[in-house]
Amino acid sequence: MSTPEIKLTFEEPIQRKNVPKHLADYSPDERRDVAKLLGLPPFRATQVATHYFSHLSNDPQTWSDIPAELRHSIADQLTPKLIELVRSVSCDEGMTRKDLWKLHDGVLVESVLMRYTDRVTVCISSQAGCGMNCPFCATGQAGLTRNLSAGEITEQIVSAARACVNGELPGGPTRLSNIVFMGMGEPLANYNAVMRSVRNITDPHPDGLGISARSVTVSTVGLVNGIEKLTEEGLALTLAVSLHTPDDELRDTLVPINSRWNIKEVLAAADKYEKRTGRRYSIEYALIRDINDQSWRSDLLGRLLKNRNAHVNLIPLNPTPGSKWTASRREDEAEFVRILESYGVPVTVRDTRGREIDGACGQLAAAEKTRTD
Fold first, then answer.
1. Which of 111, 134, 244 is CA-nearest to residue 180?
2. Are residues 265 and 212 part of one domain?
3. Is 12 among the residues known to form the active site?
4. What was the pLDDT predicted at 298?
5. Most buried of the four, 41, 112, 274, 280, by CB within 10 Å?
6. Can you give the pTM of this predicted structure?
């Protein structure tokens, strides 16, 4: 099987198409500089950031500390509308909600909001589509349309936080507690925008949402140069590596980037991240029937990880329409878990939420595009 060409740099593989600049695209100091360039006192940027990040307000009419005649023009300049809700679908008695967003240029992306007994998590997209070409992934098969801006990424998160505070999920008002960069796209292929978004999440009020870095997970299919760069950031994020098989021969097919950085190199980079941050990393492993769920692969994975500070997150595959890829049999899943545990490797099986609402990343966007074409 030939390996598709994949962009490996931090430059934008497909440029964003004139996305309006948003407060969330800038650092706190840059926001004040932008305000000055717009002819505003620098403190106006701090006021707007307070409304946006602290109060989650997108209605300038409520910005009572800003003169009424200035509110709308300042909002248009610093917090332009970047995403528009197309539709939401829910399951799990309303505890799981997938939102489909249309960006300013008509591109569609998805986020998923999930309420558990002890936390509320939003899974957000960092790219429209994905260029990593993993054949079992709906997003990967759609290809990469473009990177999202930090503003577009942050808007998904702030919208989720607002939904929590407004009590839009069953159980009443709550607080968004966890963010996972596991939606559409490869986060480390859109590095700068993702890291600006991470700072927006973790910076204290009023500069950001004030959520702990430990509550933020950044996933990657194994861009070693991205992991190395993330290691130098000094943030105790949770790193999730989408491994999906412990042998290079199969991974070259399932995760084509493996032809550039193999399993040994990926795990070595993850180990350095763990050593620098003190944070155990996660190994994401989508169990695919008769492809990567054999007991010998579990045995090999156990031997690879037994002396590492890593946790395996097994993911029963969400099948996509018309795909040959499907979830493993329950008995094979149970045996896979048993073998890993025999090596002392921590392992959990991910809660399979969202199957009945096109739960796999990219499915809802693909369905909407088909419906409107």
1. 111
2. yes
3. no
4. 98
5. 112
6. 0.92
Q: In terms of domains, do 309 and 338 share one?
A: yes
**Which of 311, 319, 315 lies closest to 356 in space, CA to CA?**
319
| 69 and 92 part of one domain | no
Residue ranges making up the domain that contains 318: 83-372
Do 32 and 125 belong to one domain? no
Give the span between the Cα atoms of 267 and 134, in whole angstroms. 19
Total domains present in the chain: 2
State the number of CA atoms in the 13 A half-sphere of 57 facing the CB. 16
361 catalytic, yes or no?
yes
307 lies in the same domain as 232? yes
DSSP, collapsed to helix, strand or coil, labels residue 120 as strand
> pLDDT for 303-346, tens place per residue?
999 999 999 999 998 877 777 889 999 999 999 999 999 999 99
Q: Is residue 254 assigned to a domain?
A: yes
pLDDT in tens, 12-66: 445 556 899 999 999 999 999 999 999 999 999 999 999 999 999 999 999 999 9
Cα-Cα-Cα-Cα torsion 229, 231, 235, 236, nearest 10 degrees, comes to 140
**Statement: residue 353 has pLDDT above 80:** no
Q: Which of 123, 130, 164, 361 is catalytic?
A: 361
What amino acid is encoded at 81 in this protein?
A: K
Residue with tokens 């595959």: 317
| 350 C-beta neighbours (distance < 10 Å), count | 13
Q: Which of 91, 110, 168, 333 is catalytic?
A: 110
Count how many Cα atoms sit within 13 Å of the Cα of residue 132 in the half-sphere of its side chain: 30
Closest CA to 84 of 62, 61, 51, 107: 107
- How far is CA 363 from each of CA 109, 131, 141, 323, rounded to the nearest angstrom? 10, 16, 11, 12
Q: Which of 43, 78, 113 is the last residue of a domain?
A: 78
